[in-house]
Amino acid sequence: MLDHTIAAISTSLSASGIGIVRISGDEAIAIADRLFQSHKKKQLKDQKTHTLHYGHIVDPKEDEIVDEVLVSIMRGPDTYTKEDIIEINGHGGVIVMQRILQLVLTHGATLAEPGEFTKRAFLNGRLDLSGAEAVIDIINAKTNLGLKSSMHQLKGAVYYHVEEVRREILELMAHIEASIDYPEYDIEELSDDHVMGKLERIAKGIHKMIQSSEVGKMIREGIKTAIVGKPNVGKSSLLNALLKEDRAIVTDIAGTTRDVLEEYMNLLGIPVRIMDTAGIRQTDDEVEKIGVTKSKAVVEDADLVIMMLDASQKITKEDRYILDLVVDKQVIVLLNKIDLSMEIKEDDIRALIEGVTVIPTSVVDERGLEELQKVIKDMFLLGDIAMDDGLYITNVRHKVSLERALKSVEAVKASIQMGMPEDCWSIDLKNAYGDLGEITGDHVSDDLIEEIFSQFCLGK
């Protein structure tokens, strides 16, 4: 229901320079007028939209000034929610923000649920569902690439690509319905060859979006990168060098890292979710055994494995065991400690894993790290992505809907090839149309809407 006015603190609840209490709904301005005192004795209801007003928030019951504020007035429909919005900009203390919010709630507003402001923007037609989901991606973006992708979607990139395909499906459905309702007319455009041509084009458009999801997943979540190797080869030192901070404990004692340490980093513009794992080896230490088991699980799930070897020692059984674990993964082998005498050559590794990328490194003096970053960039083709040049599906829900839609389109093609009647085609086309509508929000359940917006923070 949109018949009540909502409010929430829209900034971080912490000691900060500025804090904002946002109010949205028909009563937003009236509620603010009950609490706001302008030094010019002005009432907010008499002021123009999109203006800023200086004054104080006063507790009417106690006749006490709570905070010195600037109040923004924004009248619908030219607002984020398409409703009247008031934003009270005060000092960013925890107590003062909570006090102002409590006064707003006491004088007529209802506490907003997580994501309710954006939910209203969707329900009021300002954003489609994919655009609304892009808002949370903007908030959670970890690199400029992720931010650009989310902004591209907020501007409607997903919506326009999906709607283009839906229009083609709708046009085809209309021709089929006309053919069924008026069989006396011979609709030339509905020949099997013509329909198959349209279906091929529709399937190609959906398939292209599905293909983009692999890159999209990495843009949103980062490239899952596992650093593996036996104990004391320099894994934690590599993590620290890439992050440029002492994040992992580094000692000469084998088995120091007992658990998986995970960090996000911006590597030449590429989002990387990098994981430092426990050294993989045979051990009697029960805690270390758990760490080794976790390391193996991380390797299995990783998009990229950085396998580290101590180049100052000959290849051991443990090294060979780990190389066998990663042979079927995207892998880069680092021959670390080249500042010491080298006992392993690059060709030794290539003889074990054909075509593998091998980089001689010395983490202590950062030799080879720049080459490592360039190799990762080239390997995943992410560094030169231009968001204006194409669409990247970053949302798993969107990908699932696209896959269902493609399956329905393929079912129509199969029906035509089997000589089935036109009304059978229509059923699968309607399913495809509905699946794509789940992405934009045209065909979506209330439960799904609630689930999506529950992932948002309060005040957004």
UniProtKB/TrEMBL annotation:
<feature type="binding site">
    <location>
        <position position="253"/>
    </location>
    <ligand>
        <name>K(+)</name>
    </ligand>
</feature>
<dbReference type="GO" id="GO:0030488">
    <property type="term" value="P:tRNA methylation"/>
</dbReference>
<feature type="binding site">
    <location>
        <position position="256"/>
    </location>
    <ligand>
        <name>K(+)</name>
    </ligand>
</feature>
<comment type="subunit">
    <text>Homodimer. Heterotetramer of two MnmE and two MnmG subunits.</text>
</comment>
<dbReference type="InterPro" id="IPR031168">
    <property type="entry name" value="G_TrmE"/>
</dbReference>
<keyword id="KW-0460">Magnesium</keyword>
<comment type="similarity">
    <text>Belongs to the TRAFAC class TrmE-Era-EngA-EngB-Septin-like GTPase superfamily. TrmE GTPase family.</text>
</comment>
<keyword id="KW-0547">Nucleotide-binding</keyword>
<dbReference type="GO" id="GO:0003924">
    <property type="term" value="F:GTPase activity"/>
</dbReference>
<dbReference type="Pfam" id="PF12631">
    <property type="entry name" value="MnmE_helical"/>
</dbReference>
<keyword id="KW-0819">tRNA processing</keyword>
<dbReference type="InterPro" id="IPR005225">
    <property type="entry name" value="Small_GTP-bd"/>
</dbReference>
<feature type="binding site">
    <location>
        <position position="251"/>
    </location>
    <ligand>
        <name>K(+)</name>
    </ligand>
</feature>
<dbReference type="GO" id="GO:0002098">
    <property type="term" value="P:tRNA wobble uridine modification"/>
</dbReference>
<feature type="binding site">
    <location>
        <position position="126"/>
    </location>
    <ligand>
        <name>(6S)-5-formyl-5,6,7,8-tetrahydrofolate</name>
    </ligand>
</feature>
<feature type="domain" description="TrmE-type G">
    <location>
        <begin position="222"/>
        <end position="381"/>
    </location>
</feature>
<feature type="binding site">
    <location>
        <begin position="251"/>
        <end position="257"/>
    </location>
    <ligand>
        <name>GTP</name>
    </ligand>
</feature>
<keyword id="KW-0963">Cytoplasm</keyword>
<dbReference type="InterPro" id="IPR027368">
    <property type="entry name" value="MnmE_dom2"/>
</dbReference>
<dbReference type="InterPro" id="IPR027266">
    <property type="entry name" value="TrmE/GcvT-like"/>
</dbReference>
<keyword id="KW-0630">Potassium</keyword>
<feature type="binding site">
    <location>
        <position position="22"/>
    </location>
    <ligand>
        <name>(6S)-5-formyl-5,6,7,8-tetrahydrofolate</name>
    </ligand>
</feature>
<dbReference type="InterPro" id="IPR018948">
    <property type="entry name" value="GTP-bd_TrmE_N"/>
</dbReference>
<feature type="binding site">
    <location>
        <position position="236"/>
    </location>
    <ligand>
        <name>Mg(2+)</name>
    </ligand>
</feature>
<dbReference type="GO" id="GO:0046872">
    <property type="term" value="F:metal ion binding"/>
</dbReference>
<dbReference type="InterPro" id="IPR006073">
    <property type="entry name" value="GTP-bd"/>
</dbReference>
<keyword id="KW-0342">GTP-binding</keyword>
<feature type="binding site">
    <location>
        <position position="87"/>
    </location>
    <ligand>
        <name>(6S)-5-formyl-5,6,7,8-tetrahydrofolate</name>
    </ligand>
</feature>
<keyword id="KW-0479">Metal-binding</keyword>
<keyword id="KW-0378">Hydrolase</keyword>
<feature type="binding site">
    <location>
        <position position="232"/>
    </location>
    <ligand>
        <name>K(+)</name>
    </ligand>
</feature>
<dbReference type="InterPro" id="IPR025867">
    <property type="entry name" value="MnmE_helical"/>
</dbReference>
<dbReference type="Pfam" id="PF01926">
    <property type="entry name" value="MMR_HSR1"/>
</dbReference>
<protein>
    <recommendedName>
        <fullName>tRNA modification GTPase MnmE</fullName>
        <ecNumber>3.6.-.-</ecNumber>
    </recommendedName>
</protein>
<feature type="binding site">
    <location>
        <position position="257"/>
    </location>
    <ligand>
        <name>Mg(2+)</name>
    </ligand>
</feature>
<dbReference type="GO" id="GO:0042802">
    <property type="term" value="F:identical protein binding"/>
</dbReference>
<feature type="binding site">
    <location>
        <begin position="232"/>
        <end position="237"/>
    </location>
    <ligand>
        <name>GTP</name>
    </ligand>
</feature>
<dbReference type="Pfam" id="PF10396">
    <property type="entry name" value="TrmE_N"/>
</dbReference>
<dbReference type="GO" id="GO:0005525">
    <property type="term" value="F:GTP binding"/>
</dbReference>
<dbReference type="InterPro" id="IPR027417">
    <property type="entry name" value="P-loop_NTPase"/>
</dbReference>
<feature type="binding site">
    <location>
        <position position="460"/>
    </location>
    <ligand>
        <name>(6S)-5-formyl-5,6,7,8-tetrahydrofolate</name>
    </ligand>
</feature>
<dbReference type="GO" id="GO:0005829">
    <property type="term" value="C:cytosol"/>
</dbReference>
